[in-house]
Design goal:
The complex is a heterotrimer of chains A (376), B (510) and C (309). The longest helix of chain A is centred in the last third of the chain and has 28 residues. Chain A is globular, with a radius of gyration of 25 Å. With 376 residues, chain A is mainly α. Chain B is an alpha/beta fold and 510 residues long. Chain B folds into 2 domains: 236 residues, Rossmann fold, CATH 3.40.50; 251 residues, 3-Layer(aba) Sandwich (Rossmann fold). Chain B is built from 17 helices and 22 strands. Chain B has a 6-stranded mixed beta sheet with strand order 6-7-8-3-9-10, sandwiched between helices. In chain B, strands 16-19-20-13-21-22 form a 6-stranded mixed beta sheet, sandwiched between helices. Chain B has a 4-stranded antiparallel beta sheet with strand order 2-1-4-5, with helices on one face. Chain B starts with a strand and ends in an 11-residue tail after the last helix. Chain C is built from 14 helices and no strands. In chain C, α2 runs parallel beside α4. The radius of gyration of chain C is 20 Å and the shape is globular. The chains are: A mainly alpha (376), B alpha/beta (510), C mainly alpha (309). Chains A and C meet through α8, α13 and α15 of A and α3, α4, α11, α13 and α14 of C.
Chain lengths: 376, 510, 309
């Protein structure tokens, strides 16, 4: 049975090359206790992502420096550009908060896009079905309707997850496509503006249905609401009993069960909040930016929100920075269209930022370990 | 000079700040049964993991059968003829015993029926030769713990191991199964195998080994012939001081009934009845021990009584009132404390700090939260007092508790549960994986709780612990209580038979 | 009867890209790695196919290019999840975002260009002479046969070979596999990358046969449906065959019904595959509510060897 061994030779001869490898003064080791790196990890990752995409740009025959300069100029170089960047940052921030709260209890909501669209449809429904409300009532009612529609769309993910163990990643994504088709149905069908020369959109809202803008730009008061949402979010998570329950549920669901926390209840609540925030963002989009419901109301804010949340490591305050940064990326993406690059540039950049980010975060948990001097 | 099967010299291994193995030298002669004795955390597993290729030493040399080698992976360890029977079996639960044994075998790509039959015969031959029977064709999770261990042993033999390491092999076995294992080991010795057994159970060491090495706190401190030593000396070497003769338990008059369980039926995860018509009562000032091999309904009993899973039949009364809404929250409010089986899996949230972990059961109370807001400052001072009182050693209140040692984690858990002034404590394997000092501390806490009038349900696989602490012992076997003994009647052999499902004395001739 | 035959044929041809993607997902998940990048990888496979075909006009070169581009993305995912032990979900999402963006970027110039592809058909006169079902076979192209053969081969690979046994062990219990001398990282890398190649093949089929011109985001969620189908098929390649055709049929059905004006707006018919995905998953969840999960035990969990117990 064991002739192999008794033949006298150790069957694992020491190879020269390996010995040389062993004699390196350092080796790379994973250290699970090491805290993942600080604020510089996102910065480095973004830098690495820019470098990767520069490669693709160069392959396309363009000078990456020129392209990036153009993007920077477009997004932050003028007051118009910067206000546009902030306009984009508002829905991104709200959706980012929404997905972040779900990620905190390990619910992978990638349906912010659909929830945002549902909110936009819900808010618009108010203008369609209640054309004669007293003016000042419109904005609050539309806000409620938008948030409620988003929350309901979130529940469509939460209920299958809580009671039928349906993976929320898949269901929330399927619901994105469903919401998108629903939007198309309304703007190409019953809600289409009869005087809009076949433009796929509802009639333009009346002034009382539009959010006020700040100082003549397209920047609307939704910005204030988004910032308030950040503060409330931060307060709830760190100071309240409910925040503690979420923290526990996120850290160890089994321990949470032992302390009497009902996971399903929280899944439903959190998904309603998550969807509600996205739905609210949808309301802001129709009422504050587009002033109507129209085809392609969201250029993928809901997906980008995932990156917003992740760059900020789910920290609400940091999400303000990340949403402005990505907002700038999107606006910059539009401005490079003038030199013949597609705006999907920014989506590509976003994807590679996310790569570099998670890669960088895990890399920072490795460290060089000095092989002890006692070693041979 | 004797020929060494294993010769480890000057082995150093560090994990971060901890030196798990501090210039350890360890020699095993050919054909002997060598016991490696030490407390949990003494460094036994680290040394064995280096032999089996799981860890690499920071420095030091290893020679197998007289040749210096480097063991860089489990595969290389196997090629050197070293086989390890792990404490947590290294079996893929979803595969059959047969598939597990041939796992990793290369060379033959196609696995048709005739090939599998050939292997089956080959493996059955080995199993028969050493009297190691198990069903080969069903997924491993359906086998008993004893059977799984036999699969592990046959696996090492099939791979041509001539040095076999048993890592804490009896910790999950009934006394009867343990005796059978020792007979198998003698059989293997007759066949020229070298064996190492790591354990902290002194009597086992004396029963089975030829030579003994003792480790303490990462250092090798003694190497003796079994026939020249005794249990007392070993205990002193292992712990570093005289071991107290256990804990003295004063006789207490039991008080009013706290928990009455009548005809309790609980459904298990596979749809069968995990508990069948269980009846017992726990009184004040009383520790009830539940003995039994894991998987006979202990988990379900603890989970049902803490509200984690519902029961399908029967009645449970707490403080003379029927439990109608047995939700976890409700039972915590009523005063039932729980030390769960696996402290890091369900007792503590490893990534959170001490304060958050202490709040786990009481965060709903007025003194911890007001108007839905956590009382941050108050909670911090409260946590500081608690960890002082229960002697939890931690660097600070906010670093993740998974960085604490096992003993400190368990003390933290007790601090939280005892602080609620529980009327009933359900403690599941409360000393698993703890060293002697921490084990003693846990036993004291349980006895103090009994002294202050609580009832305690102690579920443990450590029969010595159950016998030492319990006022009454119930033996669970496949979901039923098949025996109840008073402290005075408690007798290890008899309980062992009950644990194996043998009730009648006439059957117990084995 | 004609309609029935038509529907079956349509189900098979719209099920085939799903089938490739599901098979890719199955082997990746069997090794313990979830690949949520399916959608992005399919898109890259499609756009690369389109570009290379326009350049070369050679079907084989196109196929190789698509598969290797997909393998590149698969390698990134494998590196992040296996070597760096990142969160598999986030990494997969990143692949999908990146793939969607890159494919749109690369495809800008060729969007809308109709491809003049002719995919060889396999003639099997003896099968075609069977009444009724024979007519189905007369319409099947080479790649449909390839996908069916792949399903069968993967089934044999997973359940009848030593490698398949190791694959299952790696996905269920990497620590045991490691002790038994099986290279966990090796198996995981291989199957994640091979799985991605199949997803690239799905994109290739989608654009070369199913709808031969590039439109941004043309997969329309098929990658995600494929991920759901893995669960539906219980990680078994032969069930995957049935599930893919079933969903292909739903897709085709929605499309066919539009041709008859039955008063349901086409938008709602197009929702059919998405809605049924959720409903099917709910049904499976309800049916298995008392059973332990059927997925590989260590799915989604990175493996560390040097761990202190």
């Amino acid at each position: 049975m064991n002739q192999k061994i008794t033949a006298g030779q150790p069957s694992v001869p020491m190879k020269k090359g390996l010995r040389r490898f062993r004699s390196l003064p350092f080796r790379i080791e994973y250290d699970p206790h090491k805290k993942s790196g600080g604020w510089w990890i996102p910065l480095l990752s973004i830098g690495a992502a820019l470098a990767i995409c520069a490669l693709f740009i160069a392959l396309n025959g363009m000078n990456p420096a020129v392209v990036y300069g153009k993007m920077l100029q477009g997004a932050f170089g003028s007051s118009f550009g910067f206000s546009e960047t902030l306009v984009k940052a508002i829905p991104l921030l709200l959706c980012g908060l929404g997905v972040a709260i779900a990620y905190r209890i390990s619910i992978w909501n990638i349906g912010a896009e659909g929830q945002l669209i549902a909110g936009a449809i819900g808010a618009t429904a108010v203008t369609i079905f209640a054309p004669n409300l007293p003016g000042p009532l419109y904005i609050p009612v539309m806000m409620l309707a938008g948030a409620a529609a988003g929350a309901a769309w979130g529940l469509l993910t939460a209920i299958p997850r809580a009671f039928f163990q349906v993976n929320e990643l898949i269901s929330s994504l399927m619901l994105n496509y469903i919401a998108l088709l629903l939007l198309d149905y309304f703007v190409f069908g019953p809600w289409r503006d009869p005087e809009g020369f076949n433009f796929p959109g509802t009639p333009i809202f009346t002034p009382s249905q539009m959010l006020a803008t700040i100082g003549g730009s397209r920047l609307h008061f939704g910005l204030i609401f988004a910032l308030i949402a950040v503060a409330v979010f931060a307060f709830l998570l760190s100071k309240t009993r409910w925040g503690y329950e979420l923290r526990l549920l996120g850290a160890n669901p089994s321990a949470a069960a032992y302390s009497g926390i009902k996971a399903n209840k929280h899944i439903l609540i959190v998904m309603m909040i998550s969807g509600g925030l996205a739905g609210f963002a949808g309301m802001l989009e129709v009422s504050g930016t587009a002033h109507r419901l129209m085809y392609g109301i969201s250029p993928g804010y809901g997906y980008t929100a995932i990156i917003i949340a992740w760059i900020a490591k789910l920290n609400p305050w940091a999400m303000i920075v990340s949403s402005v940064f990505i907002g700038g990326l999107i606006v910059g993406g539009y401005s490079v269209q003038t030199i013949g690059l597609p705006s999907s540039m920014s989506l590509m950049l976003q994807g590679s930022i996310l790569f570099c980010l998670i890669g960088g975060e895990m890399l920072s948990k490795y460290r060089l370990k000095r092989v002890s001097e006692e070693g041979k | 000079m004797p020929q060494y099967a294993i010769d480890m010299k000057d082995i150093v291994k560090r994990f971060g700040e901890v030196t798990a193995s501090d210039h350890v030298s360890f020699m095993v002669e050919k054909g002997e049964v060598h016991a490696l004795l030490g407390e949990n955390g003494a460094g036994k597993s680290t040394i064995m993991s280096m032999l089996s290729g799981l860890y690499k030493a920071d420095s030091g040399t290893i020679s197998i059968q007289g040749k210096e080698v480097r063991i860089r992976s489990p595969k290389e360890s196997m090629e050197l003829g070293i086989g390890m029977v792990h404490q947590n079996f290294r079996l893929v639960q979803t595969l059959t015993a047969l598939e597990n044994i041939i796992l990793g075998e290369k060379g033959s790509l196609w696995r048709g029926t005739s090939w599998m039959n050939k292997k089956k015969r080959e493996i059955e031959n080995i199993a028969d030769r050493f009297g190691l029977r198990f069903p080969a064709g069903v997924p491993v999770w359906q086998l008993s713990v004893g059977e799984q261990q036999r699969v592990e042993i046959v696996k090492t033999l099939y791979r041509g191991a001539n040095i076999i390491i048993f890592d804490e092999p009896t910790s999950v076995l009934t006394p009867g199964e343990a005796d059978q294992l020792f007979r198998t080991m003698q059989e293997l010795k007759q066949n020229g195998k070298t064996m190492i057994i790591t354990t902290h159970k002194l009597k086992e060491v004396m029963a089975v080994s030829d030579r003994i090495s003792v480790m303490r706190k990462g250092k090798m401190i003694a190497n003796l012939e079994s026939k020249n030593t005794n249990v007392q000396e070993l205990a002193r070497l292992m712990v570093g001081r005289e071991m107290s003769n256990g804990i003295s338990i004063k006789k207490k008059q039991r008080g009013k009934p706290i928990l009455e369980v009548e005809d309790l039926v609980v459904r298990g995860t596979h749809g069968n009845d995990a508990l069948k018509d269980i009846n017992f009562t726990i009184f004040e000032h009383e520790i009830i021990g539940i003995a039994g091999v894991a998987g006979n309904g202990q988990k379900e009993l603890a989970e049902a009584l803490t509200g984690l899973i519902p029961w399908t039949g029967g009645r449970v009364a707490f403080n003379n009132a029927n439990l109608k809404v047995p939700t976890v929250k409700n039972l915590i409010d009523k005063g039932i404390a729980h030390i769960p089986e696996d402290r890091m899996k369900s007792g503590l949230a490893g990534s959170l700090g001490i304060v958050d972990n202490l709040l786990l059961k009481t965060y709903r109370t007025k003194s911890r939260t007001k108007y839905g807001l956590l009382q941050k400052k108050k909670n911090k001072t409260w946590a500081e007092e608690l960890i002082k009182k229960f002697d939890v050693r931690a660097s600070d209140l906010h670093s993740p508790v998974r960085q604490l040692s096992g003993g400190n984690q368990q003390k933290l858990l007790f601090a939280r549960e005892v602080d609620q002034d529980p009327k009933l404590m359900i403690a599941v394997h409360p000393t698993q994986g703890l060293d002697v000092g921490a084990t003693e501390a846990v036993h004291h806490m349980l006895v103090n709780l009994r002294g202050s009038g609580s009832g305690i349900l102690l579920i443990s696989e450590d029969l010595d612990e159950v016998i030492q602490l319990s006022d009454r012992i119930l033996v669970l076997y496949s979901g039923e209580i098949i025996g109840e003994l008073d402290r005075a009647q408690a007798n290890k052999e008899y309980i062992g038979q009950l644990m194996a499902g043998l009730t009648g004395k006439e059957e117990a001739v084995l | 009867m004609d309609l029935f035959i038509l529907l079956i044929t349509a189900a098979i041809s719209s099920g085939t890209p799903l089938l490739f993607a599901v098979l890719g997902g199955i082997i990746s998940e069997k090794a313990g790695v979830i690949n949520l990048g399916t959608e992005g990888i399919m898109l890259i496979g499609a756009v690369i196919s389109c570009i290379v075909f326009i350049q070369t006009g050679n079907l084989f070169v196109t196929l190789v290019a698509a598969v290797f581009a997909a393998a590149g993305l698969g390698f990134i995912h494998a590196f992040l999840c296996i070597s760096l032990r990142s969160n598999q979900i986030v990494s997969g999402l990143a692949i999908t975002l990146f793939g969607t963006g890159l494919s749109a970027y690369l495809g800008k110039a060729i969007a809308g260009t109709a491809l003049a592809v002719s995919v060889p058909k396999i003639k099997l006169p003896w099968l075609e002479s069977v009444p009724f079902i024979g007519r189905i076979f007369s319409n099947l192209d080479l790649f449909i046969w390839v996908s069916v053969a792949l399903a069968v081969l993967l089934y044999l690979y997973m359940y009848k070979t030593s490698l398949g046994l190791h694959l299952k062990a790696v996905g269920d219990s990497p620590s045991t596999s490691d002790v038994m001398g099986i290279s966990v990282a090796g198996y995981r890398y291989f199957h994640v990358i091979a799985g991605s190649m199949l997803m690239g093949l799905a994109g290739f089929y989608l654009i070369m046969v199913y709808s031969p011109n590039w439109i941004e985001g043309m997969t329309a969620g098929r990658g995600w449906i494929a991920i759901a189908l893995i669960i539906f098929a219980r990680w078994n390649p032969l069930y995957a065959l049935l599930c893919a055709y079933f969903f292909g049929g739903l897709d085709a059905l929605g499309f066919r019904i539009q041709l008859f004006d039955i008063g349901i707006p086409s938008y709602f018919l197009k929702m059919l595959p998405y809605v049924s995905t959720i409903l099917v998953l709910m049904f499976i969840g309800w049916k298995n509510r008392h059973n332990p999960p059927a997925e590989p035990t260590s799915l989604g969990i990175p493996y560390f060897r040097e761990q202190r117990f």
